[in-house]
Structures are given as C-alpha cells and as structure tokens.
C-alpha cells in the first residue's frame, strides 16, 4: 500500500546529473501546457484568491517557471514547449491582446514577476528574446520599463526592478534605466548588516528569513554578480564575498538528508530554499572550507530529491500544490496563488552551467563531517543552530515580520523550528487543539477558550555566546522573560527553556514540544504505550509521543507540577504531517506580585536513514535529564532568596 499511497507523478529519476535535473524540470513544465491560455501569456492553475487580481496570479503561473526554463536554455538545453513562453511574451505585453497582463501600478504584484523575465532575457536571450518580432520586443520593453517610475515596497522587491533593467540592458533596450538600477542597488546595499547577512528592509526591520537567502537577496546578489561582472565589478566581488561568509552560516539550516529547516513565510516555495547553493555555482564563487563543490552539489540535489519524493507537493497531473509536504492553505499568505509555488524553479539555476563546471564534474559529497554534531550561535538572525544527536533544529528569539502576515506568530515567534518536525499553525481561534502550539508558551486568560502566543519579541539577545534571552508582553499586566538553552554534548537530544512570568491576571499556560506524526503503523491514532513502543505517554510533569517519525517529549524540570499530555492537534496544523500529536505541559497560575518560574526540558529525535522511529535505546537518553545552566539557575535562586 505504501507504493500506492506514496507515489509522485514523475518517472524514476536519481537526480544526480545535469541531465537528471533537466528531466525533472521538463516533467514540471509539461503539465503546465494544459493550463496555458491560447496565446501563452497566462497559466491558470486554480481558483483560490489572493490580495491581488487574478490576471496577476495567472502571470505568476507564466513567469515563475521561467527561472528554470531560462537556465535550461541558457545552458545549452532544449525544451519543446519553449514557444509557449515566447508567444506569451508577445501576447502578455500587447495592450491590444485579450491576454494583456495590464500596465503596472504602484506596489503592483506584476513587479515581482519582472525579476524572472529580466533574468530570462539576460541568460537565454537567443531563445526567448531574439525570436520576438520588433513590435513584440518594443511592447515587452515598454511593459518592463513601465515599473521604473512606480513606487515599490522598501524590501527585497527592489531587486525585481534591478533584474528588469538588467534584462533590458542585456537586450540593448533604450528602456533600460541604468541610473534607476544603480540607485536601487545602492539602497539595497543599506540592508546589509555584516557577516554576509542582509535584512529584508531598512534599519529597524528584524526579519532574516529565507528572503535573506535563497528566496531573494542572496540569490539575487549572486545572479547579479555573474551577469553584471563587466559593468559593475567592484559590487559583484562584494556580493561574492558576502556569499562566502553567509554560506558558512546557512549550511547549518540543512540536515544530512537534504531537508531545510522550515522558518518564516512563503514556505510553499519549497525547494527554492536550497537555490542559494546553485547560485553559488552560477556565480563561480570561490568556496570557503569546509565547503567544496561536491558538498554544495549534495546540499542542492539532496534537497531537490527530498521534494521530488513528496507526493503531497504535487497534484495528480504533476502541477505543484499550495502547501508544504501536503496541500495546506492554513500555512499560506494572502499573496500565494496557485502559480506561486513555482518560485522553486530558482533551484534549477545550475542547468545554466556547462557540464564541465566543477559543480557537475565533482562527485556529490555528504554533509561535512566537520559540521555534524555541532551547536553554532548565529548573531545576526538571533538563531542558535544545533544538529547534536542527529536532530537539526534552531532556537529563535527576536525575529518578527515587519508587516502583518498570516500566522506570523507561528512563522517567526516560536521558540524552536525543526527540519524533521517542521512547525504548526493555527486552524482556528478557539481550543488548544486548533492552536497548533508546538514550541511555544501559549497563555490564556479565559480558561482556555482563546490563546496568545509570542509574536512581538522584545529585548532579544544572545548572552555570553551560550543562550538566547528575550521578553514578551502578551497583555499590559503580563510579562514573560524567556531563556533558550541549546543541547549539550552530555544530553544531545534535549534543549532547555526557562520562563519567568509576572502576571496581574489569572492565567492558564500550555507549553508545547515538537509536534510529531501521530499515527500507528496501521494508520490508526497513537495510543498509550510503555518503553520504546510507538504510542503516547502522559503523567504529571511529562508528556511524550513516539511514532515512525521518531520521538518527541517534554518534561517539567522545575516544580514538576505541570500536567503532561500528548495533545492530538487538529488536522492540518503541522506543515510536515496532517495528523500530529503534541507533547504539552499545562498549568494554572494565579495573579500576584511574585515571579512564576517555569523550567522545561524538551526532547526530540527524528527517524533517519530510512529507519522508522528513533534509534533503539533512546529511552536511556530520555531518562538522563539535562540541568539548567548555573548562570540561569542562580537568577532563580536569587529571586527565591529575596522572598
């Protein structure tokens, strides 16, 4: 039955060579033909809505696959459906055509799609630009150039105008505004904060998610450094230097099996998360040790292989679904159309490289031994990365989206994010089951009818290079201070959280560990079990769940009085699995002047290497509880001594 239930619409493909990758791309492009308008300018993949108009959504469906198509063509490949996109350029930019995309306005979604179009002209001019008639070229020039006098968000969006002008300049168009391009680049460079990192906006923005890397900024910098080397060599070298520094941090967001840690927004872009590694190759960056071309190749291709084997990421006809590991609109943003997931086509950028490039000639290498079983503190994103015990995850405090975005508390405010267990989002605003409260301290002041989770984190910092410390103010008379301590060598499957709560109102708390696949081998719900058998475990002070996905647990290492449960969350809260169980600690707290201290140890080990469940013997590590670091326990003792 596994073969029946867990199959993708693609032909068998090891995804090891350039030809393999090209084959996979073509099998992603082929199903789009049935959804393409007669004139080729629009691809309509579904009937869901976005905050922008449906024509712009159909333009997304047209433009985003071009990231891959243009790389394929620019690298010497061929695709028999290329004419669909050539015709689309003609009809989409012709004001007299019924398929006209419409002129751009201020802050128009159409601006986003200009980046792929500009890139395609720059790398595949002969195949995508040269076949156009003089009239069609003029229309495309005017349409792209129409964004140069429009207002744009003060974010990574400015890169979209850079690539529009870059493409126009490569075509020799008089509509290329090189002064505008330089001004945009100069402003984008003000987002740089050092160590290879750029925030997604001006000073004051604390948002360093995948838009700082693969989705936008790093990818754009690297592509620009390749395509503009002759005209802007100093800036291009600076971008390559940034990428070298960034790569040594970014590698910690990937696990040995190729998965990237889900964090932040736009995760329906899926394997776009690994496009940075392909962009390193595209830009011919000199790699810093321990990275080699074999390592970079492995990071990119393992991630693509992982996604090629996720049946829920694709519809029966081979088109991408909106969601993550399965179709899930709960995780999406208001700008996700049915064409949005094709942003993943950025990860085909290595198809633009010749087969003689070291990315393709180097044998694929596994995740570097030097980077396994490590903990690394990343100051810029306020993340502490760990892969001790074979579990790749991060601790987080301080990031938040700089503007309202759906489920932002879940996407940026949780305490931890895991490559294996993902994160969960609310599916309603009532009951704990609806909350999807993994890796968060949820608080309720109405006996559990509604819940608040951390969104706006204040005063976040890394103390002594050892742990994260931050504040959260859920109500005017409630403050929560939190310490997050990464795993230690002696207890590699545990991390520690300490919370100090001061409250002027009665509260109910629910602190969650990692959500985990909640079904038995026969697909029925997990039931209570003992030892290492798959199932759930509940008692005062601790909760745990074990299944084919591994094991997840949570323990009260303070008072030991909180009630431990294995909460069955509502369906489709978790990004990775549609049915999850969440080990949780619950307690009631009275209002008062004294601090309430919660000390928590969180345990997790994912399955790996094709094995079902955690490694045998994990119960021994479960029984070896970690200790709160002396620097934090001294603060607790000091406060109790005052009483």
Main features:
single chain; 643 residues; alpha+beta; 8-stranded antiparallel beta sheet; 5-stranded antiparallel beta sheet; globular
List the helices and strands and how they pair.
Elements: H1 2-5, H2 18-29, H3 54-63, H4 66-74, H5 82-92, H6 110-123, H7 125-129, H8 134-145, H9 158-170, H10 178-188, E1 192-194, E2 197-198, H11 217-227, H12 233-250, H13 275-282, H14 293-308, H15 358-361, E3 375-378, E4 383-386, E5 393-396, H16 408-412, E6 416-418, H17 432-435, E7 441-444, E8 458-463, E9 467-475, E10 478-485, E11 494-503, E12 507-512, E13 516-517, E14 535-539, E15 542-547, E16 550-556, E17 563-568, E18 580-589, E19 596-606, H18 618-622, H19 630-642
Antiparallel strand pairs: 1-2, 3-4, 4-5, 5-6, 7-12, 8-9, 9-10, 10-11, 11-19, 12-18, 13-18, 14-15, 15-16, 16-19, 17-18
Helix pairs in contact: 3-6, 4-6, 5-8, 6-9, 9-10, 11-12, 11-13, 13-14
Notes on the structure:
This protein has 643 residues and is of the alpha+beta class. It is 29% helix and 17% strand. Helix 4 runs parallel beside helix 6 and helix 13 runs antiparallel to helix 14 (293-308). The chain is globular and about 80 Å long. It starts with a helix and ends with a helix.
């Amino acid at each position: 039955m596994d073969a029946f239930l867990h199959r993708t619409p693609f032909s068998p493909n090891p995804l090891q060579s350039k030809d393999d990758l090209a084959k996979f791309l073509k099998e992603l492009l082929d199903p789009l033909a049935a959804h393409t308008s007669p004139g080729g300018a629009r691809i309509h993949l579904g009937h869901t809505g976005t905050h922008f108009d449906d024509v712009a959504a159909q333009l997304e469906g047209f433009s985003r696959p071009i990231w891959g198509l243009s790389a394929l063509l620019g690298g010497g490949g061929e695709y028999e459906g290329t004419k669909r996109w050539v015709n689309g350029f003609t009809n989409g930019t012709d004001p007299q055509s019924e398929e006209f995309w419409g002129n751009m306005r201020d802050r128009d979604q159409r601006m986003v799609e200009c980046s792929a179009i500009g890139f395609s002209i720059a790398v595949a001019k002969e195949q995508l630009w040269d076949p156009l008639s003089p009239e069609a070229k003029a229309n495309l020039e005017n349409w792209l150039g129409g964004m140069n006098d429009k207002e744009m968000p003060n974010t990574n969006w400015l890169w979209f105008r850079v690539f529009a002008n870059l493409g126009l300049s490569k075509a020799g168009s008089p509509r290329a505004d090189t002064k505008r391009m330089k001004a945009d680049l100069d402003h984008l460079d003000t987002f740089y904060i050092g160590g290879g990192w750029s925030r997604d906006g001006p000073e004051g923005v604390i948002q360093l998610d995948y838009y700082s890397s693969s989705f936008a900024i790093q990818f754009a910098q690297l592509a620009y450094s390749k395509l503009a080397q002759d005209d802007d060599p100093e800036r291009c070298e600076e971008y390559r230097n940034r990428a070298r520094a960034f790569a040594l941090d970014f590698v910690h967001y990937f696990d040995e099996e190729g998965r990237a840690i889900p964090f932040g927004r736009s995760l329906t872009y899926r394997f776009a998360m690994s496009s940075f590694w392909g962009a390193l190759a595209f830009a011919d960056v000199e790699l810093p040790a321990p990275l080699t071309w074999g390592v970079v190749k492995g990071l990119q291709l393992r991630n693509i292989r992982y996604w090629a084997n996720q049946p829920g990421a694709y519809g029966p006809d081979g088109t991408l679904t909106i969601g993550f590991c399965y179709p899930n609109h709960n995780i999406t943003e208001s700008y996700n159309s049915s064409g949005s997931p094709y942003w993943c086509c950025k990860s085909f950028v290595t198809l633009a490289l010749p087969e003689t490039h070291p990315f393709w000639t180097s044998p694929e290498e596994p995740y570097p031994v030097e980077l396994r079983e490590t903990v690394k503190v990343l100051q810029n994103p306020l993340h502490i990365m760990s892969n001790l015990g074979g579990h790749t995850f991060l601790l987080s405090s301080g990031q938040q989206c700089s503007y309202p975005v759906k489920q932002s508390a879940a996407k940026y405010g949780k305490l931890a994010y895991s490559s294996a267990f993902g994160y969960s989002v609310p599916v309603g605003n009532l009951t704990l089951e609806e909350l999807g409260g993994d890796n968060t301290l949820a608080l309720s002041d109405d006996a559990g009818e509604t819940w608040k989770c951390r969104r706006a984190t204040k005063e976040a910092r890394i103390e002594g290079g050892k742990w994260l410390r931050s504040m959260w103010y859920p109500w005017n008379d409630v403050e929560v201070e939190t310490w997050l301590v990464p795993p230690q060598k002696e207890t590699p499957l545990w991390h520690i959280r300490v919370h100090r709560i001061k409250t002027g109102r009665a509260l109910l708390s629910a602190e969650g560990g990692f959500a985990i696949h909640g079904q038995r081998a026969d697909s029925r719900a997990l039931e209570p079990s003992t030892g290492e058998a798959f199932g759930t475990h509940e008692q005062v002070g601790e909760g745990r769940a074990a299944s084919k996905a591994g094991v997840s647990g949570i323990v009260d290492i303070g008072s030991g009085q909180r009630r431990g449960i294995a909460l069955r969350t509502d369906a489709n809260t978790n990004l990775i699995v549609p049915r999850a169980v969440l080990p949780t600690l619950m307690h009631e707290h009275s209002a008062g002047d004294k601090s309430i201290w919660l000390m928590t140890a969180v345990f997790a080990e994912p399955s790996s290497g094709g094995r079902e469940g955690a490694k045998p013997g994990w119960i021994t590590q479960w029984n070896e509880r970690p200790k709160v670091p002396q620097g934090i326990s001294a603060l607790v003792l000091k406060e109790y001594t005052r009483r």
